[in-house]
Amino acid sequence: MEKALKKYTWVFIGPTLLAFIIGFILPFLQGLYLSMSQFTTVKNATFVGFSNFIRAIEDAEFLNSFQFTIAFAIAAVLLINVIAFIFALLLTRKLKGTNIFRTIFFMPNLIGGIVLGYIWQILINGVLALVSEPLLALNANAGYWGLILLTCWQQIGYMMIIYIAGLSNISEDILEAAMIDGAKGMQILWKVKIPMLMSSFTVCIFLTLTNAFKLYDQNLALTAGDPNKFTEMLALNITNTFYSRAGAQWKGIGQAKAVLFCILVVVIAMTQLRATRRKEVQS
Amino acid sequence: MKKILSLLFAFTAAIGMSGCGAEGETLQETGSVYYLNFKPEQDEAWQELAEDYTEKTGIPVTIVTAASGNYETTLMSEMGKSSAPTLFQVNGPIGLANWKDYAYDLSDSEFYGELTNESFALENGDEVAAVAYVVESYGIIANQTLLEAAGHSLDEIQSFEDLKQVSEDITARKDELGFAAFSSAGMDGSSDWRFKTHLANLPIYFEYQDENIQSTEKIQGTYLNEYRNIWDLYINNSTTEASMLAAKTGDDSRNEFLASEAVFFQNGSWEYGNLTGEGKFSDEDLVMIPIYIGVGDEANQGLNTGTENYWVVNKEADEKDIEATLDFMYWCVSSEEGTEALANEMGFVIPFENAQKSNNLFVQQDVAYTAEGKTPVSWNFTTMPSEEWKNGVGQALTAYAADQSDENWQKVEDAFINGWASEYALVNQN
Amino acid sequence: MIQNKIKNGFIIAGLILLSVLYCYPIVLILINSFKIETAISTSTAFQLPTLETFAGFANYVQAIIANCFLTSLFYSLIITLTSVAAILLFTSMCAWFITRVASKWNKLLYYLFAFSMVVPFQMVMFTLSSTADALNLNNPFNIWIIYLGFGAGLAVFMFCGFMRSIPLEIEEASMMDGCTPLQTFFQIVFPILKPTMVSVGILEAMWIWNDYLLPTLVLDIKVYKTIPMLIQYFRGSYGRVEMGAMMASIILSILPIVLVYLIGQKHIIKGVTAGAVKG
After folding, report:
1. Cα–Cα distance between C102 and C117 in angstroms, integer?
2. Residues B82 and B163 in one domain
3. B263: helix, coil or strand?
4. Average pLDDT of chain C, as a whole number
5. How far apart are CA B391 and CA A231, in angstroms?
6. pLDDT, mean of residues A69-76
7. Is residue C133 pLDDT above 90, yes or no?
8. Is B48 within the bounds of a domain?
9. What is the percent of chain C with per-residue pLDDT over 90, rounded to a whole number?
10. What's domain C63-278's architecture?
């Protein structure tokens, strides 16, 4: 069969491969090269070595956005997963109306980041005005928690669905066996359910973590980095470096930042996958 | 699948009828014009003008508007494309520095030949790289009817002290009068340029006058106290609580002024069309006065008059597109329809020989002030080092408005003075 | 038992409260979309429309006529439909080949696809937009090539995961009967893939429909605006903010999604689950 298939290699992989080269491989390699160049368009690049990287690292705003992104990611990943897991536990108790609740909790996920951002901007500014606190444009704390609240609202439903699927995969027999052994509710949760759900946790943490690092639309629409770039996350900082900064040197610096960002995301994703996968094997 | 297809057809039909359909780009023998416009207030008028021109000559003209805060961003991404703008704007020498490699030499163009004053052109070596197509004025627009209702008259206001007295008197009787002194000094992105750029021009202008310079790499901030005074006056005698200014838009501010909720409204001659007409103000109601901040010879201070609108033709564009663009520009500033639209509908002063005089009230007032011997305040904000600098000052101003402490003002000064030096260095390295 | 019932009652009450809170942000926008422009501000956001501030459908009319909402809807639909169709067809073929032919190259390709899932868009945004421009992929009718390339990672990954679990025998038997690989794929494999197709299609459609930065940078902004671009345009590029029309557009943009969701809910939730397990 392989032989017959091989004759058709280009029919099967050709279109995807071509688009993949145009849409990913080529831009990626070109991006790597441009990160070591000074350029305003792809055609007029001149090689400058690693100076872009040095200036990217020296950029205080970049470092600030790095810290902010980390602080955001930690809180967002924890909150989303804990709450989504609790929701999943509640919705697998065979209560009345479970389906309706599931439908509602999942819905925000379908709405795009830009729209979400503006919805929450209006809501949060309204609440801030009500309690006479400074509005989002001036309020770094509100910006931070606002972003977290928004991502929670958006992603809890999605993760909840994954946890529900995991929970319903645990067979009744195991749970019954545990009960016969005298295990109580909390013990069943910690000793049986959670270990058996490790692969769901892997997936959910992976998704929330990479989403948190790549967050752009919501950030742009909700705070756009205000106040004073305090709530500017990495993706927004890089895009701004590219397109809002006048001057020939900025594009190269922006591309260098993007390469660093890319390495960071890949390393974090790999480390996380490895760490939780190991847990899966043990259980 | 059939359902989806028929739905799509229905859509296409509906769009065609609503006039929203995009005109397909056809290959043109004659070349075409793509103008990236900087002035949102005039977007509609530009679209009409472009349509007229296309109808007349058959040359397609596309005009896309991106406002101040996003202009550079849009220009940057558009210039990287194959169908890049053939005509774009820079705000002055600083703006030109970033785009001089793209600037077509205009010195031989018919268009440049009719410029009334060479100081309206920006040079790049021997070449004419950019030409101003509009001169504008800004100041404090006052509603005379309200001012009189409050028991004051225009003659009373000849200096910052006078302005302060009148404003504070109105604020003291705000509830009784039913209106405030100033419309909201909104710091939303659609409005903050009025203060981080236009108002900030005054301390810069007076410092340049003192030092006898045209631009600087280090601003000293000699008149920042006066800047604070006028800002205090705006935000504490306003329709809106100072802490709420962060989210107020340009539309909010204009609407308050139109609804006679405020006597004063800082803005420019470009607002004339928005303020007058059916159900709005008539010329008798309105007057524009200089922005006094308590520096220099206030008795002889005029309006803030100048330009930040320079046209640059993209030399990377196709030969025939450049031709088409030059023709279009010439038509705009010399033909009857063109100058009629620019002078009256858009309310510009057009510094070209055959152009019509504008019937814009504020423009006429500027002429009158100058005739009285008052000195217009020139536009030095075009020498601000970068958009980042403006944003920094704007942020600090907004924060200060919400909490008017000395520490917060210190941050404004910091953004103004240190921000200037660091941004200047950043922008001008290599 | 009774204790349990009381407990469940509390839980349901809590969930109802949460559901109301969950819907509130959208309801808030819905309410504001019926108010006149001057009555939509931070201090008045929570007020219900009164006789004076009720705008009827004026904001919706404004959004549809003056801001060309339908045009954007059309472009968003075209882009999403063509891209998803292309992704489903081509990546399933590609994934079948990769799983059925064991070679170094295929392994490499597989890892590259997986890698592309993690790479942030900022890494390629500038070069991608210039490539797209040079190849004339800057319109809603060709942009699917970009989406096929950039979205292939997830799709190939999910298809491969599923194909590894289906037995080879049927395919081999079909080839023995003299079918070409193409016939085998479309007659045997394609139908089996249907559930995975639905999952992949839903995940990719959600991404493409809501995508903002890629079309902003790639499309010819002179002519084309997708829905997310239109909504950003209200705030971003116009200098003045038409809050009323913006509220109406937000509601209009959510409406089709909610409709599709309510109709195809079962598939969507299954799709998400499948995507996660394979991921």
Report:
1. 22
2. no
3. strand
4. 85
5. 15
6. 95
7. no
8. yes
9. 20
10. Orthogonal Bundle (1.10)
Considering the domain architecture, whether residues B168 and B290 belong to the same structural domain is answered as: yes
Query: Given C70, C134, C236, which is nearest B11 (Cβ)?
Result: C70
Question: What are the C-alpha distances in Å from C64 to residues B21, B414, C70, C71?
Answer: 12, 46, 6, 9
Which domain does B387 fall in, by range?
Answer: 138-304+379-428
Q: For residue C219, what are its two tokens?
A: 């499309």
pLDDT at C67: 76
pLDDT at A109: 87
Domain CATH number, residue B181: 3.40.190.10
Say if residue A218 is in the same domain as residue A89: yes
Q: Looking at A60-201, which runs of residues are DSSP E strands?
A: none
Q: How far is the CA of A115 from the CAs of B363, C133, C204, in angstroms?
A: 41, 27, 18
- Residues A116 and A6 grouped into a single domain: no
Domain ranges for chain C: 1-32, 63-278
| Residue A74, domain member (yes or no) | yes
Same domain, B216 and B101: no
Rounded Cα distance, C128 and C116, in Å = 14
With residue A38 as reference, give the H or E element that holds it. strand A37-38
Positions in chain B short of pLDDT 70: 1-29, 67-69, 430
Residue owning tokens 């951002």: A117
Percent above pLDDT 90 for chain A: 37
Determine if residue B105 is left, alpha or beta; phi over 0 gives left, psi from -120 to 50 gives alpha, anything else beta.
beta
User: What is the interface pTM, i.e. ipTM, of the complex?
Assistant: 0.87
The reported pLDDT for the residue numbered C261 is 85
> What's the pLDDT at B341?
87
Chain A interface includes B403 (CB < 8 A): yes
Note whether A248 contacts B430, CB cutoff 8 Å.
Answer: yes
Q: Is residue A203 part of a domain?
A: yes
Do A119 and A13 reside in the same domain of the chain? Answer: no
Question: Are A83 and A221 in the same domain?
Answer: yes
* Peptide bond before residue B85 is cis, with ω within 30 degrees of 0: no
Q: A15 and A93: one domain? A: no
Confidence (pLDDT) at C279: 45
Please state whether A182 falls in left (phi above 0), alpha (psi between -120 and 50) or beta.
left
Q: Check residue B78 and give its pLDDT.
A: 85
The SS3 assignment for A32 reads helix
Asked if C120 and A23 come within 8 Å (Cβ–Cβ), the reply is no
For chain A, the average pLDDT equals 87
Question: What is residue B88's three-state secondary structure?
Answer: strand
Q: Which amino acid is at B336?
A: E
Using one digit for the tens of pLDDT, what is the confidence trace for B369-386?
989 989 999 999 989 988
**B344 and B387 fall within a common domain:** no
Counting the structural domains of chain A, the total is 2
Count the neighbouring beta carbons within 10 Å of the beta carbon of residue B429.
9
Instruction: Work out the minimum CA distance from A264 to partner chain C, whole angstroms.
Output: 10
* Domain co-membership, A177 together with A263: yes
Contact check, Cβ <8 Å, B429/A249:
yes
Query: What are chain C's partners, defined as 3 or more CB pairs within 8 angstroms?
Result: A, B
Query: Residue B420 and residue B254: Cα distance in Å, rounded?
Result: 31
B389, B395, B404: best to mutate for the A interface, most A CBs within 10 A: B395
DSSP state of B239: S
A151: domain CATH number is 1.10.3720.10
Contacts of residue B126, defined as CB under 8 A and 6 or more positions apart, other chains included, come to B107
Collapsing DSSP states into helix, strand and coil, what is residue B314?
strand
Q: How far is the first Cα of chain C from the last one, in angstroms, to the nearest whole number?
A: 40
